[in-house]
Amino acid sequence: MDSHTEHAAGETRAGTTDIDGFRANLRRWLDTTDLSPGPDNSLSGQVAQLARVRHALFEAGWMRYGWPEHVGGLGGPAALRAVLGEEVATRGLAEPGIYSMVEVLAPTMISYARPELAARMVPALLSGREQWCQGFSEPGSGSDLASLSTKAVAGGENWVISGQKVWTSLAQYAARCVLLTRTAPGHDGISAFFVDMDSPGITVRPLRTMHGVDEFAEVYFDDVVVPGDRMLGRPGDGWRVAMDLLPHERSTCFWHRIAYLFTRVDALIADTDLRDDAALGAAYLALHTVRCRSHATQRRLADGQRLGPETSIDKVLLATAEQQLFDTARDMLPGAIEFDDEQWRTEYLYSRAATIYGGTAEIQRNIIARRLLDLGRE
Ligand SMILES: Cc1cc2nc3c(=O)[nH]c(=O)nc-3n(C[C@H](O)[C@H](O)[C@H](O)COP(=O)(O)OP(=O)(O)OC[C@H]3O[C@@H](n4cnc5c(N)ncnc54)[C@H](O)[C@@H]3O)c2cc1C
Fold first, then answer.
1. How many CB atoms neighbour CB 42 within 10 A?
2. pLDDT 10s digits, 175-222
3. What digits encode the pLDDT tens for the residues 210-257?
4. DSSP label of 122
5. Burial class (CB in 10 A: 0-12, 13-18, 19+), 270
6. Whether this model's pTM surpasses 0.90
7. 172: Cβ–Cβ under 8 A, 6 or more apart, which residues?
8. Nearest protein CA to atom 2 of ligand 1, as residue
9. Would the CB of 356 count as within 6 Å of ligand 1?
């Protein structure tokens, strides 16, 4: 750390639990530090920009607050991470979707990895040195995740993995993968690994989304040897890993996404010069609703509660609000989405994925019906 860094972190250390103080100091620092993105808005450009932003924030200490000290963090409540994400998103410093990956993957990795592995790896993610990916879905196992068939077979001190994953976001940029495999039949026969993506036998084939970006990939595992100490938890803990990770994917990472979507409401108002449109008001209200819900989730996390199936409500509200906003943009900007190849079009198309990634809208409603409302099976 240079002296500027120590100054920034030191200033904040005095008030790690003081969220308003943290935000004020962070804003001052961001106001005087140019992290604005360059002209390259391709996915590779966005990934490089994210690494640059994370690096600068880590070096100055901001990216380390809210993370435990034993993994390179500086402690303090997890809400500090939400404040940081909100500032990054509203200033347009990093693409909010790919910024989320830290919130999705790191908490569960910290809970299940051997302490020395987490201590070595988490700082690499936080500091932007590495990108990680999530290898859950398979060609025949998406909603029915427990039917996954990528096999891990014990061989001495190692495990040998073979099978295929699909829709693995950012796999082509990832140095590591949080991977679910099958080691025995049933839910208790799923085991999770933290796999180096440069291991011999891994092939990554990017797939193009309908918004024209190679955001996810097919990932093939052909007899990939993974050391036994890369297992997350114990053999058979994989389903628990998934049940701990998915609630983060369905809630905590939304705080900064919502903040970003509010900036798009402002942009829509600016682009249309309209101030009293009913549909826009409804879209704003939907966003405000999910922000209130997300606030409650952040509070539960701050109180030390474990996140679970109730995060499916956050996911339904977020996907609904996001699609409503971009539907409104489509209606208020005639032709922009249909004919112009620009930001509104890209975001409109990507908003369709909000009811798929992290578990589809139908599956979230099933979880809410069955596990929260006790309405029985679908
Ligand atoms: C942009 C994006 C990024 C993604 N990134 C990742 C990633 O990084 N890692 C990863 O592992 N996966 C990722 N995914 C995959 C995602 O998790 C799956 O697409 C999702 O879980 C759905 O699985 P599926 O595509 O196999 O659809 P299916 O499970 O085949 O579902 C097809 C349709 O049937 C419906 N359906 C299925 N079962 C039921 C049921 N019981 N009741 C009612 N309706 C049902 C679904 O809702 C859906 O409409 C990503 C997906 C997208 C779109």
1. 10
2. 999 999 999 999 999 999 999 999 999 999 999 998 889 999 999 999
3. 888 999 999 999 999 999 999 999 999 999 999 999 999 999 999 999
4. H
5. exposed
6. yes
7. 204, 206, 214, 217
8. 357
9. yes
